[in-house]
Each structure stands twice: as structure tokens, then as C-alpha cells.
Amino acid sequence: MIPESTPESVYWRYTEIQRSIYDWTLFIMPESINTEEHVIATYLIETKPEVDILNWAFSISIEQTTGTWVPVPEETPEVRQKYAGKIIGIYEIPHYEFELPAGLKSRSYVINIAFPWVNFGAQIPMLLSTVIGNISMMGRLKLLDLHFPHSFVQGFKGPKFGIAGIRKLLDIPERPLLNNMIKPCTGFPPEVGAKLFYEVAAGGGDIIKDDELLADPSFCPLEKRVKMYMEAERRAYEEKGERTLYTVNITDSANKVLDNAKRAIDAGANALMLNYLTAGISTLQALAEDPEINVPILAHLDFAGVLYESPFSGVSSTLVLGKLPRLAGADIVVYPNPHGKFPFLRDRYLQIALTLRAPFYEMRTVFPMPGGGVHQGAVPLLVKELGTDCIIGAGGAIHGHPTGPKAGARSFRQAIDAVMAGIPLEQAAQEHPELQSAVQTWGIAGSNVST
Amino acid sequence: MIPESTPESVYWRYTEIQRSIYDWTLFIMPESINTEEHVIATYLIETKPEVDILNWAFSISIEQTTGTWVPVPEETPEVRQKYAGKIIGIYEIPHYEFELPAGLKSRSYVINIAFPWVNFGAQIPMLLSTVIGNISMMGRLKLLDLHFPHSFVQGFKGPKFGIAGIRKLLDIPERPLLNNMIKPCTGFPPEVGAKLFYEVAAGGGDIIKDDELLADPSFCPLEKRVKMYMEAERRAYEEKGERTLYTVNITDSANKVLDNAKRAIDAGANALMLNYLTAGISTLQALAEDPEINVPILAHLDFAGVLYESPFSGVSSTLVLGKLPRLAGADIVVYPNPHGKFPFLRDRYLQIALTLRAPFYEMRTVFPMPGGGVHQGAVPLLVKELGTDCIIGAGGAIHGHPTGPKAGARSFRQAIDAVMAGIPLEQAAQEHPELQSAVQTWGIAGSNVST
Description:
Two copies of one chain form a homodimer.
Chain A: E1 38-47, H1 53-63, H2 77-83, E2 86-93, E3 107-116, H3 124-132, E4 141-147, H4 150-153, H5 162-170, E5 177-181, H6 190-203, E6 207-209, H7 222-240, E7 245-249, H8 254-266, E8 271-274, H9 276-279, H10 281-289, E9 297-299, H11 304-308, E10 314-315, H12 317-328, E11 332-336, H13 346-357, E12 367-371, H14 379-386, E13 391-394, H15 396-399, H16 405-421, H17 425-431, H18 433-442
Helix pairs in contact in A: 6-7, 6-16, 10-12, 12-13, 16-18, 17-18
């Protein structure tokens, strides 16, 4: 019996097709996707010029859902129609139409595939296994974006505090916040850290974080450190009348993170920090969604470059440092400042801020915290680019300030106040010796940036 | 007074922003678009490496909606929030993250912008003016795709007949149809055309079309031609027992097309043809949606290359030859066959077939009709690639068949029957002298194609 050939009426088995080599039922228009039932993945794919891209896209959508390299008996038309990935867009870049340039070595495509999320449910590990699991080893293929339906996102609680919650905790309605990383990074006892903590907090640090390299080592154990730092926080509060959040690094094996978090909170911690990419994004989620965790969580970026740095492979920085940690419940995400010590494209830095702060269903907005080589003279540029809903992540420019960490923190606050009042930094520096000293040491950023 | 800085709560005027140079309210996540209220346009954009792409995307979205190169007083925050284009995706290709290669001369992006369709309504001219109007002159910018909401598409009637309707008219439930273009193209009186028409119809042509170069010239006037051709159709029907559609070319100035169509129908025409890109896509729509037009319409591709051929500029062939004529109501779209006389990428040819036939709300499916150098030996390859829901557009291989047009048409039908029966063409040719002759003259296509 000859099957009907209209795509609406019939399912064509790829390898059984007598009439066409394509299973046209899996290539559909974006208009025909039930958007609530699918997560849409956007890929960059590069192939040799002779590769049939329809066939290639088909292989990906099937490989990551119902099929494998050879047909199997139970992969029925019905199974495929319901559970297979659907290809909803193939765009060649450049968009050649009638010929390929002579000597062309490769062809590039942006491809959109819709995956039925009933296959993996509202969880991050199986989501990643579906959209960038086995196919991550298919060579030149990079996951650029994921577009989540409302029903999927409703399976996640997201940030408990977010921008508004942290602003409320600290009673800072509008200005950018000042974060400090204790420096040196590791190798010191709690007493030394507490002394530095006090200096920075008293100087005006809003948030003080552990370095990502210090969690619970024998020479600086977590509970003792939390107690001593929080005691320093109280002393600084009495002096300046402002609270400081201490984000304790609780990074550990997945089965210990929650216990570490509770020990830290029991010891008085008012915030937490997790190296969420080495611990696992779903570990961050488990932490953020635990009802006993009632403090904000700072998500630290280390390991991110392993995932995003290739222009042709891996996962985009916008997902790694933006959408995924937001989904998993980070309240703050630390990420590279493009004007400092990390090489990072300014566009990506802006796109990550956008992804953390733009409306995303009911999900709270997340504080972007650019860090790495940020100094006092970079504050106007940073606010010019990101606006005021950001956290300034400063390490060396506080602890290495010519007159010490207290002056280092104070000079940042002076820079922030100047920007908020619309006063040029040069002018504010004339009135504030701490800021003057910082600006003389590190200059003012942005004069060579096209903003 | 200092405005709130969260994107959710405040509208930032681009040129009035004190804190950030970006109007972050216009950069949003695709999840936050009310999809029913927006048409989403996908662009390929190439810029110099130093261009700030956020700024560039912003310029496009504003230029094509509420703004211009300078702020104007009545472009209030409310006007912009409601009527401005929203940037919902920016993907760099390749997706550089931390550095640009040394010596890079340009950067490429795929950008998605959502346009509120209340701005232009359910019509094609204002849609095109919005999505690819003034910005078509912005250099390296190509419109790749448009994603239409259901509510927008409901403003269009689409094809009256489509694949199912034409199959019903001709009583051909499954096999590919055979179309013939009368050759020579122009320069002959109706009597000559009628003779050729009869030959092809009697030989098995399902549809016979005028050439795009012949509409209503003095030497072959429309009404006289229709009458003579339809008389030939009746003679052929009596002989073979199959009907033939004659798609009369009614191309003319916009104000005359409908009149030409009615004259043709009054003279007995059972189908129409329009050079829809020279006449205007909305002229096709006006024709297709007219309640008095009760016959199928064939949309002819000439002029399309002007719009789509650049890899960096213009409008993709998928839109020009696929989605737009489907929206406008074409029942058949003629487009280039990549294995014949037009240079055309095989991928685009497949993508156009997909766009004409895949589910698209309630819109009927449209017959893809690849043409240009199609011969009898190309039928197996064509069906292998497109399946059976296509029309084989044959000109020279019918009229130039060694034993005349009747044998030319008959040999195509023999090739179609062989493919439908799963018989190799070589074998069928041994049984049918007309096919044998064609295959000996033009060969069998596809042995050098990777299918």
C-alpha cells in the first residue's frame, strides 16, 4: 500500500521511505510548534561543504530523542511524532542562494530544534543531556541559546531574593552594590580574614565574598571563619550603620553542599557562595530550592571558560553565565568584566547582564556582578554600560589600595556616589583623598572605549 | 528625580539615559514576547568589527518602528514600549566569546526582532516596509525568515485550492503532476499555441501554462487564446479521459489583473497564472482572495533573483518563493530546480518545498513546482528529494522531444508511473519507446548527487 504523501497526513519513516529520502514530518515551521510543550534550542553548526544539512539536522534531532544511527523496531511513527525533536529553522550564514564561493572550506548554519520537554521534565541535567549531551562531541556544533516555555520554567523556583530581595536586605534601593573578594585568595587563618573583612566592611563594602579557592580547608575551617567574619560584620555595622553580606564559599561534593550551607547558616552566615559549575548547576538548584536556605546565593563563574570559550563548540556564555544559573536560583552571578583581567567580549558581557535582568516569566531578576580587574576608575564606565542594577566586584583594587583596604572600599563608595550624583570622577577625586589615590594609581577607564 | 533602574519598572529613553547608554527595555528574552502580537523577523547582519551590535540592533528596531536618527518629542516611553520593535536574540557567527581573531574584517550575526503587528495590520506591503523597508539599504543585512502569529495569518485567506484542491480537480490522488510550459515562449499566434496545447494535453500533461513572457500581446490576445486552448483541452479530454488545467498568464498592471482574470474565466479558463513578483505579492493576494476567482492560481518566480540572490542582502528565497506566496494565496509556486538550468542550492530548493507544504495554521498546502531544465530522467531524483507532492515543470524536454510534444508528455508520464511503481527508469525505458528516446537524449539524473 502506498502511503499518502502530504506531511499533514502521514508519517514517513526515514529509512523506509520509498519516495523521499527525508522524513518531512520532522521539518516543520516554527508556527506549528506547540510552544508550551517544547524547549527550543539554537545551535551554530559548521560542516564540510558537501554535507547535506537537512540530513545532518535530522540526525541531531533524532540522536537526541528517539533514534540512533540505525532504525530500531520500536521507534514507531507515533513515537517519533510525539517524542522526536522537530527542526524548525535552518539558516545558512552567509545565506548563499545559488552558488557557493569557489574554494569554500566549510558552511555555517544556525539551526533551531524544538525538543518535547516531556522527554526530560523540569530538571537541568536531563535538559543538558538532551540539548547538548552526546552531540557535544559532534565537532563543530555550539549551543547558542535555549528558549523555555512557561510550563517548563514553572518547574523551577528560581532566585529566592534576586535584585529586589538583596536591595531590601541591605536597604539600598538604587545604587550599584560594592562587593569585595578577600585577598589573598587562600592560605590564611580565619583571624587574618576577619581582620580584612572588618576593614572592608567598615570602609563600605556591601557584600564580602570568599575567594573561589577557599571553602573549608583545615587551616581556615568554615564554621570558625563564619563566626569570626560575622563578628567583624557586627563591629563594622556598629561603626557605619550599614549591614554587610558575607557570601560563604560552601563548595563541596554534591552530597555535602547542603550540609555545609546549613552549618554556615547555623554559624551565623547571612549569605552563601557556590562554585556552581564545578559543583554542578543542579547542585545550585537543590541549594536554592531548599526551604531551609533563607539567605541569598552568589554563583561563582570559575570553570565557565571550559564550557563556553570555543567559538565553534560547547555552550554560549549567555547560557552558562546567564540563563542557566538564573533558572537554577542564583541571586548573584559573578562573570567576567571585559575591561579588566579576563579577555571577554563586551557584547557577551552586556548580553549576560540582559539575560540575568530582563523579564523572564515570574523569575526574579539576578544581580550581574562583573569582576576581574575592576578598579575605582572603572565605575562610571560600568554603570554607563550596565546601568545601576549591578554589583561591582572588586578584589585587588580594595586590598591593594595605597592606603589599605578600608580606604580601598571607601574610595569605591565615593566613585559610586559621584556617578549617582552625575559628578565626573575627576571632580569627585579632588574632594576625596581615597578616590584621588585610587584614580592616580589605576586611572579612569573608558576613554578608549566607544561608548 | 532619579528613575528606578530595573528594566521591568522603568522605561529608559535612549538619548536621555544618564546611567546606561542602552535602552534595556527594548532588549528582551523571547520568552517575554506576547507571540500573538508580534511578527518575528530573523536577519543576517554583517558589520565592521568595531560596531557595537547592541546599538546597531537597537537602531534597526527603532528605525523600523517608532524612531528615527534623532529623538523626537512625541516618541514617549509609552509609545516605544507598545509600538517599538523588541530585540529578542543576537547570535554572533562564529560565536566568539573572549577574543576576535587577528585581522578579522567583519563580524556576522543572526538577530531576531519582534515587531508589533498592530503597526502594520494583516497586509503584505506594510509588513515588508516594516521588516525590510528602509533597512534594506543598510548594507549587509538580509531578511532570512518571518515567523507569523496565528492572529496575523488569520487575516489572510491563503490558497483556495492548494495541493488537495488541485488533486481533487484533476482526480489525481497521489502521483506527482506533470506541468508543461508552451515553447516557444512567445511570438506565435493562438492557433500555433493551441496545436501545441493539444499535443501535450493528449500526451498526458496535467497542467499547461503560458510562458511568463506571454500575457496579452496583440499577436496572441488573451481571450482568443483561452478559447482556442480550452477547445484543445476538450479535444484532448475526449481522447484521454483526463482533464488538463490551463494556467493563463494574466500578468498586468495592478488595476487590470483582476479584470484580465475575469475575462479569462469568462472565456473558459480553468486556472490562472501570475508573475507575482513583478505584479506585486499583494496583487496575487487580491486575486486569490477575490470571491469571483474560483480557479487555482500558479505563481511564477521570475524577478525572484533580484530579491534573493545576494548572500548578504535582500530577502531569502525561502520567504520570496515559499512563505510569502503561500500567505498571498498561490496554489502552485514555480521555483528553480537545482539540477537544471538555474544555479540554485539544493538546500534552498528543499527548504522552499518544506515551507510550501509543512503545516502552517489553517493555510492550505501549496504545490512546489521545480522547473528549469527538468527532463524525464530527472523524475526519480526529484521524487526522491521532494516526495510525490510536487509538480514536475517541464518545457524543453516535452517540446524538444525527438518524436514531438505528445511523445514528450507521454514519456514523462511513463517516468512518473515507473517511479510510483518502484520500477527503475532504465527498466521502464525498455518497455516504453518514448521514455527510451528521452533517456537516451538527456540521460538519468542523480547518479552524481549525494542522495
